[in-house]
Write a structure and sequence with these properties.
This protein is an all-alpha fold. The protein contains 8 helices and no strands. It starts with a helix and ends with a helix.
Length: 186
């Protein structure tokens, strides 16, 4: 069934439609939450709370695109709030102000040959660690855009900020990440 039809049925109170929407979106919500929080239990909490809040706001939903952005916004904001409540401290990667040449990390360009499988896994681990060191807003922006594949407009809607802020966060986060990666990948 098409998303717009499913959302329409959900708005009308169809429980089966809601169950199907949860099924379609729960992995994506969990993935976003886990990347932000780096904790499975917290990611589960964010996933559950996101759908509770979606259900409570069902009468505010206008269409399928609004539904998608609302899911993204609720999940992102709740994960950020939970992160702040836990008062986790992140190491700044701001220690140097000079820009280093861009380090292009194209994981997709690596072949799937057995020799490269371990390299892909190690590189992904290194990149995830670097993303985890970014300040919260930059981390969330890069996760939503570069990792999860949302457009800048969708990220702006989810984060409740102008698209220019998303572009700025991406630029700064990528520069910090490239600098951090350049020190670790030789």
């Amino acid at each position: 069934m098409e998303l717009r039809d499913l959302v329409g049925r959900f708005i009308q109170g169809d429980q089966k439609a809601f169950t199907e929407l949860v099924r379609r979106y729960e992995r994506k919500v969990y993935s976003i939450a886990y990347r932000i929080l780096e904790n499975h239990l917290d990611a589960d909490e964010v996933t559950q709370e996101t759908f509770v809040r979606i259900y409570e706001k069902r009468h505010e939903i206008r269409d399928a695109s609004f539904f998608t952005s609302l899911v993204l916004r609720i999940a992102t904001n709740y994960a950020i709030d939970l992160l702040r409540k836990k008062q986790r401290r992140f190491i700044s990667v701001d220690d140097e102000t000079e820009m280093m040449p861009a380090v292009e990390v194209e994981m997709a360009a690596l072949t799937e040959a057995p020799d490269f499988a371990l390299l892909n896994e190690e590189l992904a681990t290194i990149i995830d660690k670097g993303i985890g060191l970014l300040p919260t807003r930059q981390r969330v922006t890069i996760i939503l855009h570069d990792v999860e594949g949302y457009s800048k407009t969708e990220v702006a809607m989810a984060m409740g900020c102008p698209e220019a802020t998303v572009r700025s966060n991406l630029h700064v986060a990528r520069a910090k990440l490239k600098k951090w990666l350049a020190k670790r990948i030789k």
